Amino acid sequence: MAMIAFDRPIPDAPIPPLPDFPIPFPGLPQFERRPRFEFERPVHLNIRYGPAKVRVLVMSDGSAYDTASGFSLGLALQDAFDPSHPDHPSYARFEFVRAHRNNAAGVTPGYDDFHFNPGSLDDFDELWLFGYTPGNPYLSAGEIDEIHTFMDAGGGVLAMGDHEDLGLGLCGGIQRVRSMRKWWFDFPAPPAGMERAPDNADLTRNDTQQPAFPGGPPNGGSESDGAPQPIHPNYRFGHRLWRPWGRYKFPHQVLCGPRGAIKVLPDHPHEGDCIKPNAAFANEYPGGVEVDIVAHGHNVVGRTKSGYTITDDRAFGLIGAWDGHKPAANRGRVLVDSTWHHWFNVNLSGLRAENGDEYKDILAYFRNVAVWLAPKERQDRMKKAGQLIILAIPHFVERAATLRRIRPELIYVIGIEARDALGRIAPQCQSAAWFIDIVSPHLPRHIIELIEKPRLDLPFDPFEAAAIDIYATTVFGGIVNAIAVRANEVGLESLEKIQDDLDRIAAAGAKAGLEQARRMLDASQKRLAPFTEAGEPKTQRACEPESVA
Predict the structure, then answer these.
(1) Bridge pairing between strands 256-257 and 334-337
(2) For 398, phi and psi rounded to 5 degrees?
(3) Count of C-beta atoms within a 10 Å radius of residue 38
(4) CB neighbour list of residue 427: distance below 8 Å, 6 or more residues apart
(5) H or E stretch including 308?
(6) What is the pTM of this model?
(7) What is the pLDDT of residue 26?
């Protein structure tokens, strides 16, 4: 349970900016607070907390992996997943094995001429497919079965091509992937239920290439310059557990970065298109879990190619996502991108040279994709690592060091401080989801029902909201208090030893938090009793106003 009482998604609605999470109670929603610009890291060099290790098999049948070639993934994998980068999550480490259907620069030894043989995906958590070869899907039935088994067991899949049928050969036969994006073009023609992909030249093309500078001529830019395309996240609206009366907007987690919502990607003159699947493929989506179009791109008016000039800023799907982790589906997640040009050296080089916030946000998108696609077990490991990391970051380390026993009188304050600390090590959407995932299993059923109650059209009840906040925050404080006690016993250099026992420790701390929350609310109820008593005012006004004739 990550987001609560969501309204329908509405792109770019006029809602206040994303607030900085977590916001401690009391106080009204602080819409004007700004996201943090850098994650905090542990202050102790010898800390051992066991970040989650995620293994990714990257598969290409056209592009390379070096940092010099234009059509290559070298810069994306190098820059985004360098653990020393200030935006890299401290709770995860990613290992990439670079495979190729034939061979290319930078391929991992032994992974050239790669085929999906039985067991070839057993050691991986994610499969990233960068398809180039056009024409009919070429993977054998045995290879398709191997990939499907991987997906159904929880493995995450990223897939993309470009305009027309580029990528169809590698990706066009894989369940869910094949219907979340337009892969087919003219030769061969799209089969039943499949849509024709955009051309690379005529007015069906998706052209996002920006002018070289704001207000410049439409055809004056280059996909290799430092001008990215603006993208339009498909925001959702809802209520946070600890702010049920405040209405907020959230992008999908892959577009939630250290500086707020990610609103740029590299541009390209002829992208593909991500779509909602045709009803003919409904049986490929267990539990009726729907595909989300995470963001839209817009064509650039005035762009001319091969005699065709774009006259409207028609929108198209940039990123599509299917959340197979939902209980109704219980499969691996899937993400599709409109083009691998969002990831290639040729499109990143100019942005990289400037090294501004736009490039950092694009790298954050790449990392978010790797985090979001990780299997549920790996994500649980990330969450547990995060609970240990906050004990050693600057904003919480002094408090954590003093917790040698459960401190009921401090548990609520600990919860506020720990929730703030959680928001200092991960993107806002990630830390908010973690907070809810951590406390929800320990809250009473009737509290969960209050939290999940739709509130968009209900009157604001500040007392109920305060009670929900006290329960959630105090439970979290009890959990963190208990973890800190155990961490101080084993020492920071041995934190990873308690990861496997974290659920038991958290349950004991949550119990103490619940007991303290009830005591706090009972005391508050008694203090508030006079406000419900009827009675006449103790004093009368000294004089009545003069009557007016």
Answers:
(1) unpaired
(2) -70, -40
(3) 10
(4) 253, 256, 257, 258, 364, 368
(5) strand 308-309
(6) 0.89
(7) 35
